[in-house]
Amino acid sequence: MTTPSLLKLRNISYSYHTLHGETKVLDALSLEIREGEFVAIVGPSGCGKSTLLSIIAGLLKPEDGTIVVNNPDGSLRYPRIGYMLQRDHLFEWRSVYQNVILGLEIQHMLTPDRLEKVDQMLSDYGLANFKEKRPSELSGGMKQRAALIRTLALDPQLLLLDEPFSALDYQTRLSVSNDICNLIRRTGKTVVLITHDLSEAIALADRVIVLGKRPATVKCALDIHLTTGGDTSALSARNAPEFQEYLNRLWEEIRHET
Ligand code: ADP
Ligand code: MG
After folding, report:
1. Is the CB of residue 53 below 6 angstroms from any atom belonging to ligand 1?
2. Is residue 197 part of a domain?
3. Contact of 194 with 53, CB cutoff 8 Å
């Protein structure tokens, strides 16, 4: 049995209109996001990845096309969205704790059971002793964990990650991206990760969707199955026997696009 799709985008088009004219960014783009899967979307810089994510988030309205919602509970309610951006966006004048409860505070959702979940995550993610620190006192990886807790505190159904690791240097990025994605996997949430890093996409995702250059359409989608023997370390996926083959195939798809 195939997993049902949470969202289906059909023939989505989008253009930006500025004083200098019209930029068509998405052209009849179709894709589906299945419940519980971890999808990575890759594509050349400027092709429309962030625009696509904003459309999935409901922040931008497509000028053409439809989005079909298929909630597991049968309702037509749009899934609750969690958004993580390139920078962790923690506020320096607030403690780590005040940062991770910020979303709940803004949404007037500071209930005892939600705060209990936050405490549980702080302790599960190794931040319990850093609650009263300022963000600048944390390592890059800890900041990303704090940003993740803040996002998960709102109990989103669909997590959207827009190049969340690209501000980190390469080695930090390898371990932080792996760490954060392992934590996210344990929650069983549906995830869409935008990245321009093909290796990262293959290492982290169940499925990789490749977009062509602007105006973007889907060039191909590849299911990823890596043999890692249950090892979840940062390099295990990259050392899997299938890794290079996937990388070659994605590279073939994308190299004509830049
Ligand atoms: P990506 O995330 O793949 O790098 P974006 O979705 O951010 O691409 O942008 C796609 C294209 O749309 C780019 O050419 C960008 O310059 C243009 N663009 C993005 N945001 C705006 C905006 N608010 N107004 C006008 N043009 C925009
Ligand atoms: Mg972008």
Report:
1. no
2. yes
3. yes
Residue 245 amino acid letter: E
Q: Of all atoms in ligand 1, which is nearest to the CA of residue 51?
A: 6
Q: Verify whether ligand 1 is closer than 6 Å to residue 26 (CB atom).
A: no
CB 160 within 8 A of CB 189: no
Q: What is the pTM of this model?
A: 0.92
Is the separation of the CB atoms in 11 and 55 below 8 Å? no
CA of 219 to the centre of ligand 2 (A): 18
Residue 1 has pLDDT above 70, yes or no: no
Q: Which atom of ligand 1 is nearest to the CA of 53?
A: 6
Tally of structural domains, the chain: 1
Residues 6+ apart with CB under 8 A from 246: 202, 208, 222, 224
CATH classification of the domain holding 38:
3.40.50.300
Q: Which secondary structure element, helix H or strand E, spans residue 17, and what is its range?
A: strand 5-18
Q: How many CB atoms lie within 10 A of CB 161?
A: 27
- Residue at 25 is within a domain: yes
For 163-191, what is each residue's pLDDT tens digit? Answer: 988 888 888 889 889 988 998 999 999 99
